[in-house]
Every structure is written in structure tokens, then in C-alpha cells.
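Look over this record as teaching material.
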Amino acid sequence: MGRSAGHGRIITMHYLNSPVTTIAALSLVGDSLRQSLRSSLVPKLLLPLLGLLLSTAPLRAHPISLSSVIADVQDDQVLVEMQIMLEDLVLYHRLAADGELNYSANDLQQAAKKHRKFVLDYFSIFDSDGSRLVGSIDEELLDQIDPMGVAQTDLMRRSIAYTITYPLKQAKPKFLTFVQNFGGPKAVLPAVMDLHVLHKGMFVEKSTQIVYSRPHTISLDWQRNADGKRATFAEIRKQHGEQLQARLGISSYTGLFSFLYITRFEVRHEILVPLLTLEQWLPIPRRDPDFLDVDEQTALRGAIEQFFRKHNLITVNDQPVDANLTRLNFFSLDINDFALNAEPRRVSVHQARVGVILTFPSSATPRSATVSWDIFTEFASFINSVLLIGNEQPNQFYFHQTSQIFKWTGDLTGPKVAPVVAVAAQLAESDRAKVLQQVLTNVYRAFDFRDDEDVYDALDTSVTGDLLREIYLRIKRSLLMAEQGGALSHATDVQVESVRPAREGNNDVLEAVWRVTGVSEHWGHVHTRVSEYRARLTLVKHADAWKISRFQLVDEKRLKFETSIRGYDPNQ
């Protein structure tokens, strides 16, 4: 992939992400890419290295949003090629999948065009005087968008690329500074960019990763001999391996991130930590110093739970609450989406990130909470925690040595479940849709309660006793999101589409169609699913309230599934 012949080509790659598999990805393989290897932009001594990558390095997914940039500094311009995962198009532009979890090629292509402005706005290069260079996109490469659409599980396996020219305001600048602010000033998700800087086709320094709003400055030596000595592949691999060890693997994942949820159901803390950082706090026994096998991951569960119970203390309504470790994942580069409950697999300790979800159950809706974190290292001197409280916009809190406790008080009282009052003995035809929507809303709202006993009590306002258990099991099953490893979603909207007698002249049995919007949220991602149901049911007056007395599900289908970022508005 790359630029026109007049500009040379830039080769998109993830450079040296581990001592063993030194480059995580080359996005396209084919005659055009192989031809680009022979262009003047790529040093001839690197051709054997890049040729090896073409045959061995598949595009890998990354547990957090990861883009890649190669910037080649010329005398009067900087040539950039930027690779963006399709996952980013879905998240930042709120694309919706169809019922089979496929994203249409047209939607992705349109989002790629909109994303041009995003890229130019939120990726910046500054010259020695601090002036921002103005870039223009020359080409967008969309050939990894299949004309038949892209499955959700492939969103992080496929990418698009932009080639961009940044004319220099001053010839031969001594310094250049690179900054990425992906998501804008209110970004809440960790975004990491692999940055590879070349100077007239020669690597300036070891490739690095830049995180949100942290500038990275390079020094340029314009007197350097273009034919100067270049490091061999073996030397680069050795140096990068030593760097990974010295920086505890953080060069692959860049620091700790956490997402703190306070809802009317629970307090939940979700933490992403590089495995080698966790090892500074907690011994991680393994047979192979470079890898952690599945059985070794399983054996760590109890120790990890106890560790966080000791160092991540939480009170809810002024009462200490022990953490329950409800999800533990060891993410490798093969995982498509770290919000999915992927199958366990052997992971490289140099690249692995541990995903820990801790829940802190409370018998009552939280009115206050305190969260403390008291352990830090040189390579984990703070935790950037995204606060997701109720339905509020995201906020941030930084845990560090002098600020170890976060405190919150508030009101998260949810909607009430009240009987749908029945005045007449028979349900008028004009009232069917309205009454049924109220009854069904009560049914789904009942699952906003924590304890089964409370759920049953809430269901009892809208379902007769003989049907309680069946409705409980059926609705709870429908709210489980397989896409989220079986997480229980919460219904945010119920809409009755139609209701009519199931048989001519029989008003006792109604055939109804309704749609339910369910939401589940993890790692700052909001997963929304819309499903449609068709059933035959009977509404009766029972103790002065309308209730469902008979229920037969006829059909159900998923209409769409979409993932978005809470608080991010693609129109702003």
C-alpha cells in the first residue's frame, strides 16, 4: 500500500512488538506491496527484514484501540501513512451491525470518508518552532473492506489506511513533535498509536507508542551520511527485547487503565494492566519465562482476587465490601475485542495485558462509595480511571501516591414498577397497545432489581402467579448477551409494534409484536442490541390490574447490534 510513484511509498507495519515476533502486522500482501519494497523510500539493507515479514506476519488484533503511523521526514515534507482498524470506524461513528453481526461495506466506506477529518484534526505534527503542520490526505486505502460486509469478529483484524502529506514550514527542522488526541478533548478510551519515524528512509530511533495527549519529540540530524551504518535485524531485535524487559512490557500497552462503574445495581471496577507490571506486585509462576499457559492463568485466579481485595478497597453506603472477581482475561494480540469473553489461550508475557473485572455487591442501591488504590511502581506511578456513574457523561480520576482515594455521593434511584390499573373488566381494542406496552415495560424493568426475590415481586405486578417462573426464565435468557460473554443487559426501551386478536372473533388471545433495546457496558464500550419478539398472550384483570396470564413465544430475532463509546459524539 502506499503513495503514487511521484511521492514514493510508505510501508504500513507494526514494528518490533516482541522479541520473538518482531513486527506485529503488515496490512497488505501482494504485488503492489512487494513493489513498494523496491522503492527509494525503504533502505535496501532492510529489504530482507521486510521480505520476511511479508511471509510470516499476519495482521493481529490488539486489546485496546491501536493505530499505526509511519512518518518519513524528507527535506521539505513529511510523508505519513496511517493505519486505522475498522473497529475504530464502528466506535467513533456509531455504526450498527445487522442481525447477523455484520457491518455493511457502504457504512464502513462512508465512515472512512468521515474519518478523514478525524485523522487530520486529532493527529498533529509540530515543527521546531511549535507550529503545527497542515496535512492533506492524498489517498485512502479501503481494500480490506469486503464488498459483502465485515463480521464483528473481524473488525480488529482488518484496517484502512490514509496517505498524508505534511509540507514543512521550515526546511530541515531540527526537531519534530508528534501528538495524537484520538477522540477529541473528551476522549475516555485508551488510544495507543504505534509510531515509526524514518528520516529519508532510515529509522531515526526505536519505534515507540504514543498515548493520548502525550507528545513525542524526535531530533533530526541533517548532516548524517545517508549511507551510514544501519543496525542489523539481530541487533534491533536484541535491543527491542531488552527495552521490553526494562520497561516491564509497558512499551507494548502503555500503562494502566481502569473503568469505574457506579450503577444502581453495583459498583464495578474494570482494570487493564500489563502482565509484567502485575508481576512487580504479585508473583506469576510459569514454566516458560516468556509465556504463560492456560493452566497457569487459571491457577492465578485466587491470588489475583486476594491481591485486589487487599489493595483496591471499596466501601458502598459506608460499609466495606469485598471484591468478587467476576471476569479475568489474559489478553494476547490474537484477541479481536477485549470486551468479548474470548477463549483462554497461551500468551506472551511481553505482550499480555490482564483484564480484571471486580464487582462489589450491595444489598441496596449505592448512595455513596469510596474507592482506594495504594500500590504504585516506577512504571505504574498512577492509574488513569474513567468514571462511569449512572447515566452521566464520563469523567476521569487519577489515582497516585498523593491521591489514593476517590469519593462519591449521589442519587441513583431507578424507575419504579407499579401495577397497570384496570378499570373495566374487558380491555378495549383502542387500549390494547398502550396497556400492553405498560405491562411489558414493567416485566423488563423488573430485571433492574438485583435479588431474585425482588425481581419476582416486581414481576408479580404484571404477571399472574402460574406464569411467574416461565416469564422469569424466558426474559432473563433474552437479556443475556452472547456477544458479551453472557453478560446480562438491561432493557432501556420497550416498544409495541402491533397487537391484534390471534384468531378472528377471539379477543382472549392476542398476537403481539414488540421490540426491546438492551444495553450492556464494559471497558467504556456501550453494547446495544435491538431484538424483536412475536408472541400470543392473554391480558386479564387481576386484583384491579392488567396482567399477563398466558404467554406463548412464536418468534424472536435480533435486528441489530452496535457498539459505541459513552460520551463520544461523532458530530462534535
